[in-house]
Design brief:
The structure is a single chain. By secondary structure, the protein is mainly alpha-helical. It has one domain. Helix content is 77%, strand content 0%. It has 20 helices and no strands. It starts with 7 loop residues before the first helix and ends with a helix.
Length: 417
C-alpha cells in the first residue's frame, strides 16, 4: 500500500483491521472498539508536545530568530578557516534546541546559511550539503518531535529521551565540524573576520532571548518544573511573544504558520491514531514473539541484535519519513528490547539518529528536498555533495551503539536509575 502511494496512516489502519478480521473473524470484530482505539491513540497528553514543538520552530523561523542565531554563531567560530561552514553547524545546533524537526531547521536557517556561504565564495554544492547535514542534529537533541513519537509508542519517558540526546547531539556537532575543517583546509576556503569580543557581546545580546528557549525547555525538564509537554506549551508561547517583540513577521505570516502547523500536526496525529490499531494487531497476532524467536536463532548477543535492528531501520528510513518509520517499527521492536537486555532509552536515541541519515539519502530524504528548494540546486548534485557527510554521522551512530552509557548516563544522573 505504501508503494502505491497511499498515506501511511491509512496503510497501517487498513492492514491492521484486516489482520484482526483474519484473527477474530468478521462477525466477532467490534468496529466500535476500532473507533475507540483511534480516539485513544491521540487522547494522550504527551502527544500534545508534537504540534506545540512544530509551532515553536515555525514561529521562530518567521520571527527573525534565525538571523540572530546565525550571527551569534558567526561571532564564535566564524574567524577560523572555513568559518561559515562551522557557523552553519553551530547555528543548527543552537536552533535545534527550539524546533525539534530537521526540515524546520533546513527551511529556516538554510536560506540564510546557504546565501551567506555562497556570497563568501563557498561552492554551492558544499554550502547546501553542510546545511542539510547540520539540520539532522535537530531531532537528536531536545526538544525532538521524533523522540516524543518514540516515547509515546514505546511507553518510555520522554524526559529521559530528551536528556539522553544531549551527548549524541554534541558528538554530531564535533564530528561534522571536524569534517568541515578537513574540507576547508583541502579547498582553501576563506576565514572570516578576526575574533572580536565586542562583536561577540553584541551578537549575544541580540540572540540572548532566542537562546533562552532551549535553556527554558531543558532546564525546566531537568529541574522537574514542568513535563516535556508543558515545556512545549511554554516554548510556543515564548516564541510567539518574541515574534511580536521583534516585529519581524506580519499577521498574515502568523496565520499561514498556524495553518501549516495544523496540517502537518494533523498528519502525524492521524498516523498515531492508527498506530493504536496497529499495536493491537501486532499483539493479537503475536508478531513480536515470532520475531523474537527468529532473532534468538540468529544470536542472543544484544549488540548483534541491535546492529540487525539498525540495518532494518536504515533501509526503511531511506524509503519512508521519520514519523512513518518510528510509527511502523517502534510497536514491533519495543517488546523485543527487554528480552535482549537493550535499554529502550538507548534504542530510541539510536533509532532517531539512524533515521536522520535517511533524511539525507535518496530517494525520499525530506531534508534533501527542502535544501533543493531553498538552495536552488539540482537533486543529483546535492546528493553527491552530501556523501562525505554520511561518514561522520555513521561514526557517531556506531559510537553510541557500542557505548550505550553515552546516552544513558545523563538521564540516570538527572532522574536516577
Amino acid at each position: 500500500m505504501l508503494l502505491l502511494g497511499i498515506p501511511v496512516g491509512y496503510c497501517i489502519g487498513t492492514t491492521s483491521v484486516i489482520a484482526l478480521i483474519i484473527k477474530w473473524g468478521y462477525p466477532s470484530l467490534s468496529f466500535g472498539l476500532i473507533a475507540q482505539m483511534l480516539v485513544y491513540g491521540i487522547n494522550n497528553f504527551p502527544i500534545l508536545a508534537v504540534p506545540l514543538f512544530l509551532l515553536t520552530g515555525s514561529i521562530m523561523n518567521v520571527g527573525g530568530v534565525s538571523s540572530r542565531i546565525f550571527n551569534f554563531a558567526g561571532s564564535i567560530v566564524g574567524h577560523i578557516r572555513g568559518g561559515l561552514a562551522h557557523v552553519n553547524v553551530l547555528a543548527s545546533f543552537i536552533f535545534s534546541g527550539m524546533s525539534g524537526a530537521a526540515a524546520a531547521d533546513a527551511a529556516g536557517l538554510g536560506q540564510i546559511e546557504i546565501k551567506a556561504m555562497e556570497d563568501a565564495g563557498y561552492d554551492k554544492e558544499f554550502s547546501c550539503a553542510v546545511t542539510g547535514a547540520s539540520a539532522t542534529i535537530g531531532p537528536v537533541v531536545p526538544p525532538s518531535v521524533p523522540l516524543v513519537l518514540y516515547g509515546v509508542l514505546a511507553t518510555t519517558s520522554v524526559s529521559r529521551l530528551f536528556i539522553g540526546g544531549i551527548v549524541p547531539g554534541t558528538l554530531m556537532v564535533v564530528a561534522l565540524m571536524a569534517l568541515c575543517a578537513i574540507i576547508a583546509k583541502k579547498r582553501n576556503y576563506p576565514k572570516g573576520d578576526h575574533f572580536s569580543a565586542q562583536r561577540l557581546i553584541r551578537a549575544f545580546k541580540k540572540a540572548f532571548f532566542p537562546i533562552l528557549t532551549p535553556v527554558i525547555i531543558i532546564g525546566g525538564i531537568w529541574s522537574g518544573v514542568f513535563t516535556p509537554t508543558e515545556a512545549a506549551g511554554v516554548a510556543a508561547l515564548y516564541a510567539l511573544i518574541l515574534g511580536f517583540c521583534y516585529r519581524e513577521f506580519k499577521f498574515t505570516e502568523l496565520v499561514s504558520t498556524f495553518r501549516s502547523v495544523s496540517i502537518n500536526g494533523s498528519a502525524i496525529l492521524t498516523i498515531l491514531a492508527c498506530a493504536m490499531i496497529y499495536n493491537s494487531a501486532l499483539t493479537r497476532t503475536q508478531v513480536p514473539e515470532i520475531i523474537t524467536n527468529l532473532l534468538f536463532t540468529i544470536s542472543k548477543d544484544p549488540l548483534i541484535i541491535l546492529l540487525l535492528l539498525n540495518i532494518t531501520i536504515f533501509i526503511a528510513g531511506m524509503f519512508m519519513s521519520t514519523a512513518e518509520t518510528i510509527t511502523l517499527f517502534t510497536p514491533l521492536f519495543a517488546p523485543l528490547l527487554p528480552k535482549f537486555g537493550i535499554d529502550p532509552i538507548h534504542f530510541g536515541i539510536v533509532m532517531v539518529l539512524n533515521l536522520m541519515i535517511g533524511q539525507l539519502t535518496p530517494p525520499f530524504g525530506i531534508v534533501l528536498y527542502v535544501i533543493v528548494r531553498v538552495g536552488n540546486i539540482e537533486f543529483d548534485k546535492l546528493v553527491k555533495a552530501c556523501v562525505p557527510f554520511y561518514f561522520p554521522i555513521f561514526v557517531v551512530l556506531l559510537i553510541i551503539i557500542f557505548f550505550p552509557s553515552l546516552v544513558t548516563f545523563l538521564p540516570d544522573l538527572v532522574f536516577g536509575r
